[in-house]
Amino acid sequence: MSQQTITDEAKKRLDSLFDALSIVSENKHVFLCDMKYDFSRWSKTLVESFDLPSEYMYSAGTIWEEYIHPEDKQAYHDGLDAIFSGKQTGHDMQYRARRPDGEYDICTCQGLVILDEQGNPEFFGGAIRNHSQRSHIDTLTGLRNQFGFFSDLQSYIRNKIPVRIGMVGIGKLTEINEVYGYHVGNMVLQYFGRYLMDNVTNRGGTYRLDGSCFGIITTVQNEQELSDSYDEIRAFFRKGIKLDDLDVMVELNAGMLSLNDFNVDDQTVFSCLNFAYEESKINKHGDLVTFRNELTSENRRRLEKLHAIRASINKDFKGFYLQYQPVVDAKTEKLIATEALLRWKDDEYGVVSPDDFIPFLETDPIFPALGEWILKTALQDGQRIVEYVPDLIMNINLSYSQLERTDFTDVVWNTIRNAGFTPKQVCLEITERCRLLDMELLRNVIVTLRAGGVRIALDDFGTGFSSVGLVKNLPFDTIKIDRSFVQQIEKDEREKRLLNNFTDIAGTFGADVCVEGIETSGMRDIIKDYGIHSFQGYYYSKPVTIDELLELVKNGANCFSKEI
Ligand code: C2E
Ligand code: CA
Ligand code: CA
């Protein structure tokens, strides 16, 4: 189709209408097309987030179509045809659009045709809302959060701007919370965030990354200068800060790296930074650790392992598999549930435990794909057990990053439906780390899932500082008490009292209690008197493959009581 070049007047008109549209469209991306010339203007924000060729485009509809998910393309194409052929005057559709990193964002697009005085289509304009776009602001400190951090980091890499990146964290925040209370912990975080920001402004950005960790991206290249500034900040906080009437001593840890090789992705940079930070925390008592490119062979191996694991996600999940650990009824010791536990294995690295890679991968944008695979595989495997144990519940662990995906609940419903599972036989376990999410969002997800029948458990209860707060604010079906609280129960009276308190709390909020880490019959005998609903632990069974579990239930060993 030959294209008429737009006239200056027509372009001016387009611009003024576009500006008007932009004013009224909070948080949405605007598009406007002069249909006579098929010439459009699109919001700068949209052009940047999807890396579109330009704000002004001829045939923008055709260009955009290339960004749309193959499965959604036809519907989009037909919708647009209907608009341009005059069959329809409005447009309201949802589709997935591809970002520069290859991931798809869910967008809804609403548009309307504006007719000229003769009643002919003149403009087609409207707004696109990107549902996957997350808030970039941390509500506690007001700083940019980890999404902001990653978005800025990607932009430095894309534009090849050399920067130094730091991760600074407050050591022992858990202790501060325990000694002074959660409220003081929050004040320390706010104080620290503000202090960092004041010291970094004009030279870069400050971010709250995760829990007690902050990020800094600065254009200051002088390593000594940065190291000196860290020493000053550290000395300041070590002396103690005044909060209300309290003097709180704060210890810091810090890692740093310089970004001058742009052949890396943001996640690799983050893993290296994390590595330097952990080194500072674990081996260097908080001294600044700079990540050197000349890695020791051990460091390199660890990073390579992580990358091999990460790459497996894109290779059709090669190497990943699930094991299942039985959960038994505390009274009858019959199998009532099994927990799916992730493993990764390959010839070079052997079997790798999830604790070695999940913490590194869970903020990675590709993690939700793995989460979906886990859900699907666990439910498919679970169907095989349900044949023998009809009421079996399948427990599946979630990472907090999965929960904030806008399509998460849909993924859950689809997977349950496709596997032929009953929602009430699915229990999703979430940990304390979900407190990093917006509470309202989390509550909505949990309430929606429970309304559909799915059970929700709070895992590792007691290990973090906000367990009680979470139980108070969110409706859980089950609370799983971490094994660290019962390890010594046979000789330590305090653990008994603690267990009593925990079951009291669970009871107050109407949740069942599962105790993990039952390793001996002695432990079981003591714990069963505390009004517990279920047990899990090596005493009953270690995690086993699905075939092994199947063998157990086929042989009628669905009762795990050792005395029978
Ligand atoms: P978790 O959810 O608390 O899982 C229980 C862990 O305790 C498992 O370790 C299990 O093997 C171990 N365990 C169970 N009974 C006993 C016992 O009697 N004694 C001892 N010493 N240990 C016991 P595993 O499989 O290494 O998993 C570690 C953690 O990794 C899990 O802790 C969970 O937080 C995470 N994880 C595992 N699979 C997944 C997954 O599919 N998705 C996500 N997001 N996280 C997972
Ligand atoms: Ca778990
Ligand atoms: Ca646990």
Give a concise summary.
The chain is α/β, with parallel strands linked by helices and 564 residues long. The protein has 19 helices and 22 strands.
Q: Which ranges are low-confidence, i.e. pLDDT below 50, for 5 or more consecutive residues?
A: none
| Overall CATH class of the largest domain | Alpha Beta
Give the beta-strand count: 22
CATH topology of the largest domain: TIM Barrel
Q: Identify the overall geometry.
A: globular
Helix/strand class: alpha/beta
Radius of gyration: 27 Å
CATH superfamily of the largest domain: EAL domain
N-C termini distance: 81 Å
What proportion of the residues form beta strands (DSSP E)? 15-25%
Write down the domain tally: 3
| Number of separate helices | 19
**Overall average pLDDT:** 89
The helix content is 40-55%
Examine the secondary-structure arrangement and name the CATH architecture of the largest domain. Answer: Alpha-Beta Barrel
Strand arrangement across the biggest beta sheet: 14-15-17-18-19-20-21-22
Q: How would you characterize the largest beta sheet?
A: 8 strands, mixed, barrel
**What small molecules does this complex bind?**
ligand C2E, calcium ion
What is the topological layout?
Layout lengths: L7 H16 L5 E6 L4 E4 L1 H7 L5 E3 L1 H6 L4 H15 L5 E9 L5 E12 L5 E10 L15 H13 L4 E8 L2 H8 L1 H19 L3 E7 L2 E6 L4 H16 L2 E3 L2 E3 L3 E8 L6 H18 L5 E2 L6 H18 L5 E10 L5 E12 L3 E3 L1 H8 L5 H20 L6 E5 L2 H4 L4 H12 L6 E5 L8 H13 L3 E7 L5 H7 L4 E4 L11 H16 L3 E4 L5 H7 L6 E3 L9 H9 L10
Helix pairs in contact: 6-7, 12-14, 12-19
This protein binds ligand C2E and calcium ion (2 copies).
